[in-house]
Amino acid sequence: MLDRPAAAADPQAAVVVCLDFGEDHYEESVEEVVRLVQSAGVRRYTVLKGKRSRPDPRLYAGSGKVEEIRKAAEALNAMYIVFNHSLSPAQERNVEREVVRRVMDRTELILEIFAQRAQTSEGKLQVELAQLQHLSTRLVRGWTHLERQRGGLGKTGGPGEKQLELDRRYIGSRVKTLKAKLLQLQKQRSVQRRARARREVLSISLVGYTNAGKSTLFNALARARAYEADQLFATLDTTTRRVWIPEAGNVVVSDTVGFIRDLPHGLVAAFRATLEETVHADLLLHVVDASSPVRDEQAQAVDKVLAEIPAGEAPRLLVWNKIDAARLEPGVERDQYGRISRVFVSARTGAGLELLRQAIAEFAKARAATKPEAQPVHTH
Q1: CA distances from 245 to 162, 253, 298, 338 (A)
Q2: Environment class of residue 212 by beta-carbon count within 10 Å: exposed (0-12), middle (13-18) or buried (19+)?
Q3: Fewest C-beta atoms under 10 Å: which of 98, 127, 241, 376?
Q4: What radius of gyration do the chain's Cα atoms show?
């Protein structure tokens, strides 16, 4: 909790702190966090960079850099300090005392964006669960946030009961309730999946790094109107449509939440019910932004989350999207067995989409060929 909140500070202004600890692709990481703060609604920002061999145990950035952060926040009249890193609760609290501004680390920033974007009741439940689980590690300073959600915690405890215990009790109770509701929704999804399996409908999930163009590709394939935008985490809630593909028949295509580097573990866990569409898919279309200079690293980040769900062993087809921006031609690549392993498309222009449909049809045909034929029923 801040000692002296900057009441007149601009809530749409932030100082973004990006420290270089010698990692690869540092500049791309800076560009990504800038896009994250823009996605969160920040309109004015200053990026502060610096080099360190290791984080400072008390202030993460060191006392000299924290003083620079404080002066930059005052000059910009910024309400927020955003670190492109994960801070411990103590580090976050110590920096807040020094700069007298609200400090958010990378995890909290992503959670904030998810909270803004969740549209369905399930999405909102998942985000609230992840936020409460993260907040439980920061209860020393976090109870005022709970007070806003709940209308005041001090009215419910017995005489002399500490605020911290009330916070823990509330979070524990609410987390239990949210998990129960999500479990019920999970069971409903399971029933729907079994119904699709009985009808032998091919299930396809689009996965990929955030802003790789999954929703645009989904709309192009399904002729749907799912929300799409040139921003990180434009889509949170899973959208499913039935699509007719020649030679494959009816297939069910799902557009899922985008992944990102260092996606908070709690968020992956909270969204497990939604991501189960990915786990149980017959085929994953791994959409990659072909125009990104760090496309390989982004693809690896997606693979890491898929393994965590777990969906690492699911059959997948690489879809290199945005070939118009990358100046590549539509086409396909085949593996050593002659199967299509990668398709080059532009969801925006439509180039290569027929090749993608052909790849899906080939997969469906091969899958059907491996299924044992139904045995004739003999009647007496």
Answers
A1: 62, 11, 29, 21
A2: buried
A3: 376
A4: 24
> Comparing 84-88, 140-144, 179-183, which segment has the lowest mean pLDDT?
140-144
CA distance 215 to 177: 32
Can you read off the two tokens belonging to residue 329? 């031609």
Could you identify the residue written with the tokens 């061999």? 53
The Cα–Cα gap between 167 and 149 comes to 12
CB 119 within 8 Å of CB 237: yes
For the chain, give the mean pLDDT: 81
pTM for this model (two decimals): 0.73
The mean pLDDT value for 77-85 works out to 94
Tally of CB atoms within 10 A around 246: 10
Q: Give the whole-angstrom CA distance, residue 305 versus residue 268.
A: 8
Going by the DSSP 8-state scheme, the letter that residue 56 receives in this structure is B
Measured CA to CA in angstroms, residue 122 lies from 145, 180, 238 at distances of: 22, 12, 10
Which residues does 339 contact at the CB level (< 8 Å), separation at least 6? 362, 363, 366
Question: Which pairing describes strands 44-51 and 10-20: parallel, antiparallel, or unpaired?
Answer: parallel
Percent of all residues in the chain with a pLDDT value above 70, rounded to a whole number = 77
- Check residue 130 and give its pLDDT: 84
Query: C-alpha angle 187/257/104, rounded to 5°?
Result: 110
